[in-house]
Every structure is written in C-alpha cells, then in structure tokens.
Amino acid sequence: MKIVKLTLLILVTFFVGFLSGLYALPIISAPASPSMLELATATQHVKHKGQFVSSLEDSDLLHFAKGDVSISTDTITFQGTIAPGPDYKLYLSKQFVETEADFMRLKPEMISIADITTFDSFIVTVPKHVDIGAFNTVIIWCESFSQFISAAQYQVAIKEGETKKAI
C-alpha cells in the first residue's frame, strides 16, 4: 500500500511540476517588451484601432487579452495584457471571431502575421504583401493547444468588398 501511495504522490508531483513548467516557461523565456517610446513611435501612423476584451465567448480566466491594438500599413501594435502561454500567433481575419470553432472554420481564409512572445505589449511588422484593409479583425491564437485567446475588430464589414472603421 505504501508503494502505491508513494507512486501516486510521485506522479501527482510530476504532473503539477509539468503543468507549472508549461505555464512558467513562456514567461521566463519572453523577450523584453517594447518601451513606451517604441510603442509611441509605432503608433504614429495608425490607420485603424481596435480593442481586445476578455469577455469574448471562448476567452476565459487562463486564455484572454485585454488592451488596445493599433494597425498601420506596416505594423500592428498592442498595449495591454495577454494571459501567458506558449506558441501564440497573431492572425488577420476578414470576419470577427470569438470561438475556437469559428477560428478553425475560417483559418484557411486568415493570414498569420507573427509570433507573439511578450504578454504586456508588442509591435509586429506586417508583411509587405498584406493589405490590412482587406481584413477587419486581429486574433491571438495558441497553436500548440488550438486555443482561442482573444480578438479585436478594427473594421466593420458592410458588404462584400466594402468596410468601415469599427472605432
């Protein structure tokens, strides 16, 4: 009986340690976030703004983003908080998404912009071939666990081929 209890204790300890490592590793290995000066400079030529909120359908206590996103023709800048996690990607979508099911359904039509490696702010470069005006939503997605984090709509679709600003 003692061997079973000891084995169970070892397994539980290993499992808790493993889960703690999964949570802590992205935080420990995250690069420095952009400075306030870098963020201010990157937001000088903003064409669109949006807001990540934590109240979306598939966002939860462990998977959320809150803050402001600014989009220019060459950068996407975020100021706020993202729940830490591994393998986050930033996508652009032509439709607003707030569930994992919708993300998976629309993923073939989306474009992956960059990896997200910081959790309080970021500046990413928009690839030259990407027309940000052809999309209306920025999405943070965890590739490793196929987990929706959050989305921010920066344009509202009116009808096919036409858009207007969301904010």
From TrEMBL:
Residues 50-155 form the DM13 domain. InterPro entries: DM13_domain. It comes from the Bacteria. This is DM13 domain-containing protein. It comes from Pseudoalteromonas aurantia.
